[in-house]
Design a protein that fits this description.
The protein has eight helices and no strands. It is an all-alpha fold and about 170 residues long.
Amino acid sequence: MLAQLRLSWWRESLGRDQNEWPEGEPLLAALRSWNGRHKALTALVDGWEALTGAAPLPGEALRTMAQGRAEAFAALAHALDRERESRAAYRLGHQWGLADLAMRLGNPQERETAASLAGSEKGGARSRVSRALRPLLVLQGLASRRLEKGEEGGALSPAAMLKALRLGLLGL
């Protein structure tokens, strides 16, 4: 119930003009630089709300969360004046969302569903993004590595560090 109230507050705040936001909330203060693009983040709130349902969560709830993360990544691309890369950012966010859920959900059935959804997302060309959006590529790459290895250590090993450096510096 408390989570629902907090999510409702975020949905309402993100739906408003930035000049109407209350003072003292650091995240809202940081989002002022998004020049109105913050409204796309309501999809992320919807995603978090979908995760508040009863376990085991259906695949649709997991897809909603992944879509929320994807919308947030695309909104960031727009906020950074990288509109042409918003589709690539969206794809990275969606892939990251599913892979991250597959490793972090507590319910084994939910993790299996998320892993299955993430597996169906695999394939195709790797998303190329500019230097400004490479942190998104690193997030997606490390989450995918964790999922492939089947353990959190998959993102903590020396090989994972090298992968993060390669993705961050070269975008490959």
